[in-house]
Amino acid sequence: MKEKKAIKRHMGLRASNAISNSVIHVLLVIISIIWLIPFVCIVLQSFRTELSGPVGYVIPKQWGFDNYAALFGTDFKRWYVNTFIIALINAALQTVIVLCMSYTLSRFRFKLRGALMRFMMVLGLFPGMLTMIILYRVLKDLGLTESNAVPGLILVYVASSGMGYYVSKGFFDTIPKSLDEAARVDGATRMQVLFKIILPLAKPIVIYTVLTAFMAPWGDYVFARYVSFNNPVGMNVAVGMYNWLTIDQINKNYTMFCAGGVLVAIPVTALFMCLQRYYVEGVTGGAVKG
Q: pTM of the entire structure?
């Protein structure tokens, strides 16, 4: 009798779990469809050739690649290259700085270590908008605005990257310190411990850091527009393409803007899709108390 009750209870739990999982999956599918609708509309509009301005329908009446071809007759190529250079250099430099800072705070114990971490955390609470005026003044004095906005943006993006150590440090804290001690006993230097032992084990957080460092400047608009100051030579794609949506430009360039948006989304989407497994592992592995 008890066995039958246990079997019924087990079957009831399985049924309830199956129902709850089905409901969750249905909700996720609905949310995904809602989230993807704007992107699908942009892709469809990028192939519309009958009119170049906004219209009241989504599916084009005439299809073609005219909008993509028209992009190469504008400054879009320059903006795209500027954005790629900024994102690539920022990803490389910021990853090195963040990982070194995270390793130092995770493995070393020194005076004022806790105060330094708290100080950087408090500074991170202030919005970056508060520093825009002084940063622009400094960059202008250095000649890194308008046509020279690209190196100026790289300098600003990389300068404060060390304060983003939180997730990486949490991941390093999960790696046993006994590995460091064993390597040190065998004669390895701190640099060798980091590059030959810790980083191979921390592959998810390295890829997570690279992805976040690459994506952050890729879509930046506010500060990039502030620094480039409407000079096409120093613009990134977000600033340059936004100018196509002004009142006097939108009716001529709306479909071309959609085509540019598709090309801008392709690199980040492909990169994320290929490395999303490591991205998730980096986030979950670094979300621990350090």
A: 0.83
Task: For residue 206, give the amino acid letter.
Answer: V
- Report the run of H or E that residue 191 belongs to, with start and end: helix 190-193
Q: Which residues pair with 48 in a beta bridge?
A: 63
d(CA 27, CA 38): 18
Sequential pLDDT tens for the chain (290 residues) = 556 565 666 666 677 777 888 889 999 999 999 988 989 999 999 999 888 888 888 889 899 999 999 998 899 999 999 999 999 999 999 999 998 888 888 888 888 888 888 888 888 788 777 888 888 899 999 999 988 999 999 999 998 787 878 888 888 888 888 888 888 888 888 888 888 888 888 888 888 888 888 988 888 888 899 898 888 899 999 999 998 988 888 999 999 999 999 999 998 888 888 777 766 655 555 445 44
- Number of Cβ within a 10 Å radius of residue 126: 9
**187: helix, strand or coil:** coil
> In degrees to the nearest 10, what's the CA dihedral of 104, 105, 107, 109?
110
CA distances from 160 to 6, 98, 163, 179 (A): 59, 10, 6, 30
Q: Please, what is the Cα angle at 162 between 125 and 88, to 5 degrees?
A: 110
Helix, strand, or coil here: 63? strand
H helix runs in the chain, sequence order: 2-46, 66-71, 76-107, 113-125, 132-141, 149-159, 166-173, 177-185, 190-193, 199-201, 203-218, 222-228, 237-242, 250-286
The residue among 197, 155, 158 whose CA lies nearest residue 179 is 197
